[in-house]
Structures are given as structure tokens and as C-alpha cells.
Specification:
Blueprint (H helix, E strand, L loop, with lengths): L13 E5 L3 H12 L4 E5 L5 H11 L1 H4 L5 E4 L10 E4 L11 H22 L4 E4 L4 H12 L6 E3 L2 H16 L6 E2 L2 E3 L5 E3 L5 E2 L2 E2 L6 H12 L1 H9 L6 H15 L4 E10 L5 E12 L2 E5 L6 H25 L1
Parallel strand pairs: 1-2, 1-4, 2-3, 4-5, 5-6
Antiparallel strand pairs: 7-10, 8-9, 10-11, 12-13, 13-14
Helix pairs in contact: 1-9, 4-5, 5-10, 6-7, 6-9
The structure holds 1,4,5,6-tetrahydronicotinamide adenine dinucleotide.
The site of 1,4,5,6-tetrahydronicotinamide adenine dinucleotide (TXD) has 30 residues, from helix 1 and helix 4.
């Protein structure tokens, strides 16, 4: 039998990941090994994305999938992507202030989004770079996309961490735990114990307030706890898994309800800001936002979180002007 290459190219979904670091390369592995889409891995460092892509390609026969993984430094290779994920950026170095980091990553995110969107003008944009809620806003502005096509990844990770710690405490499978976390990423998050359930039962009926407070605190510091242990480097397995769930929801039009940094236009009394809220994700991006009934205290915590994000967005706009 003579095996000939196909004469008609078949359309396959394509996800471009900008930034082939720890999160970007792990995400490329998740997407390709789950057979979700072909992946383009782009980085500013020459050779790195090409090497990683070749390594991932060489695993295909073992992992039994047929997705292509291309490593590149050229945005032309990302053309016609369904989804663009931005993980490009720097981690904070010794002597660098949070503000310096915000400015550096702000410039990087602006630049990479402009270049990527020029080749994929109708893509869905998922931002991962920190500080997350601020970078998502900057990315949206740079993209010129309708806001529902832009979202940031944080809430899926924060609630995964919350679920993990609850499962460890209660000795119940994580599969039976649903956690709800609102607000900005990191110190700013607003976990909602009233809406967090184990087999449908709110955790407020299963645990005392001080145990919940301890687990909430560990969730808030989830990223920092890993940095402390690793010393050099930060979390990337759970961040990549969390991003891959969002990619899958959009690519497969799953209409999943996931907590993502979404653009608010009056929901929760907030406007012109990206912040973590339960959102329905489908092929058009953030298709709608679920407005939960919050207590005065919960709403106040969300507004405090939003004020901090807004202050940083304003400051970054000044720094970039
Ligand atoms: O919950 C969340 N949103 C997060 C966010 C969870 C984990 C990580 N979080 C943030 O994602 C983290 O603070 C960083 O801002 C990004 C990426 O994290 P990662 O751990 O992957 O960082 P790396 O390994 O340093 O990778 C960053 C890559 C690296 O390969 C750089 O060469 C590349 O980004 N980079 C660029 N690529 C393209 N173009 C430009 N300009 C560029 N600058 C840096």
C-alpha cells in the first residue's frame, strides 16, 4: 500500500500559547495529550519553544495522539488561532518591587497581545500572567476585542486549591466538592463558604468557623506556600490544568460555569473591571455572568478586592503612558 499525504487539509482547532515557560509548556502538553487542538508554542527566547515542541511531538506515539505542536518565535505561525493564551512575563526578581513587575509584565502583555491578535483577529483570549486581574484588563485594551472574548485564569485555580484543602481535611473525594471563589487573585480572593458544598451540603454545616477560616487562609496563600517550598520558581501544574479546563470549555462549547476574571458591566455593582465571577464559558467566550446573592459582608469584600484591582490598573496606565 502506498501511503499518500492527504490532498485536502482538514481544519483542526488551534491554540496558541504565548510564553513557553513552565505554565505554557505544561499547558501545551495537557491540550495536545487530551487531543483538544493543535498547539503553537511561542516564546521570545530562540530555540526554547522549538525544543519543547519537538519533545512533545516525540511523545505522540507513546501518548497516542495526533495533535501537532509547533514551537516558534514568529507570530505568523500563530495565524488563525481559535484561542490565544498569554503566559508570557517575568517572575519577580530580588530587588524588584511589585510595581516594577507590574510595569514590565504590562509592557510584555500589551506587546504580545497586539502581535498575536493581528494574526488571529477573532480569537478568544485567555490571560494567565500576573498580576492577573490587572493584566487581563491591559490585554483586553490592547486586543480591541469585545470584552466577552477576553478572560483571565485565577478562579479555577483558587477554587481547585480550596477544594483540595477541604478534601484533605474532610477525607472526602475532591470530586464531590464544589468550591466558589470570587474576586481578584491571591490575597484579594473572596472564598464563599456558604456556596461551597460537599456532596451538595454547604461546608458551613460540616465544619466549624475556625476550621473554615484556616482553610480559607491556606487557599489565599496557595501560590506563596509553593514558592516558599520551591524557593526558585512557582506553581505550574495546577495553573496549567486550570487553564486547560477553560480552553476545553471554549473549544468544545461546553457552556460550563467556571469562575474566571470576566469584564463586569454593572454586575455585583461593578463596572469596567475584570474580576473573578462565576461565568458561563462557551465558544463565544464569557457568554454570561452569574450574579450570586451575596450578604453585605461578602459584597463588601468583593468591592474591596475590586478597588485594589482598579487602583493597580490606573497606576499601570500611568506607568505605561
Ligand atoms: O493563577 C494564575 N493566573 C497564575 C499566574 C498561576 C501561575 C503562574 N502565574 C503567572 O503566569 C506567573 O506569575 C507569570 O506571570 C506567568 C507565567 O508563569 P510561568 O511559571 O510559566 O513563568 P516562566 O516559566 O518564567 O515563563 C514565562 C515565559 C518565559 O519562557 C519567557 O521567556 C517568556 O514567558 N516571555 C516572553 N514570551 C514572548 N514574548 C515576550 N515578550 C516574553 N517575555 C517573556
Amino acid at each position: 500500500m502506498v501511503v499518500r499525504p492527504p490532498t485536502v487539509a482538514c481544519a483542526t482547532s488551534r491554540v496558541s500559547i504565548i510564553g513557553a515557560g513552565n505554565v505554557g509548556s505544561t499547558l501545551a502538553q495537557r491540550i495536545s495529550e487530551k487531543n483538544m487542538a493543535d498547539v503553537v508554542l511561542l516564546d521570545v527566547v530562540e530555540g526554547r519553544p522549538q525544543g519543547l515542541a519537538l519533545d512533545l511531538m516525540e511523545a505522540r506515539g507513546v501518548e497516542r495522539h495526533d495533535r501537532l505542536i509547533l514551537g516558534t518565535n514568529d507570530y505568523a505561525d500563530t495565524a488563525n488561532s481559535n484561542i490565544i493564551v498569554v503566559t508570557a512575563g517575568l517572575a519577580r526578581k530580588p530587588g524588584m518591587s511589585r510595581e516594577d513587575l507590574m510595569k514590565t509584565n504590562g509592557k510584555i502583555v500589551q506587546d504580545v497581545v497586539k502581535q498575536a491578535i493581528a494574526y488571529s483577529p477573532s480569537a478568544i483570549l485567555i490571560v494567565v500572567t500576573n498580576p492577573l486581574d490587572v493584566m487581563t484588563y491591559i490585554a483586553w485594551k490592547a486586543s480591541g476585542l469585545p470584552p466577552r472574548q477576553v478572560m483571565g485564569m485565577a478562579g479555577v485555580l483558587d477554587s481547585a486549591r480550596f477544594q483540595t484543602f477541604l478534601s484533605m481535611e474532610l477525607g472526602v473525594s475532591v470530586a464531590d466538592i464544589t468550591a466558589v471563589v470570587l474576586g481578584g487573585h491571591g490575597d484579594l480572593m473572596v472564598p464563599l463558604p456558604r456556596y461551597t458544598t460537599v456532596g451538595g451540603i454547604p461546608i458551613t454545616d460540616l465544619m466549624d468557623a475556625s476550621t473554615i477560616a484556616r482553610i480559607v487562609e491556606r487557599t489565599r496563600n496557595g501560590g506563596a506556600e509553593i514558592v516558599e517550598l520551591m524557593q526558585t520558581g512557582s506553581a505550574y501544574f495546577a495553573p496549567a490544568s486550570s487553564t486547560s479546563v477553560m480552553v476545553e470549555a471554549v473549544l468544545l462549547n461546553q457552556t460550563r460555569l467556571l469562575p474566571v476574571a470576566a469584564y463586569l458591566e454593572g454586575e455585583y455593582g461593578l463596572k469596567d473591571i475584570f474580576i473573578g465571577v462565576p461565568s458561563r464559558l462557551g465558544c463565544q467566550g464569557v457568554e454570561s455572568i452569574l450574579e450570586l446573592k451575596l450578604t453585605d459582608e461578602e459584597l463588601a469584600a468583593l468591592h474591596t478586592s475590586a478597588q485594589s484591582v482598579r487602583k493597580n490598573v490606573d497606576r499601570l496606565n500611568e506607568l505605561l503612558a
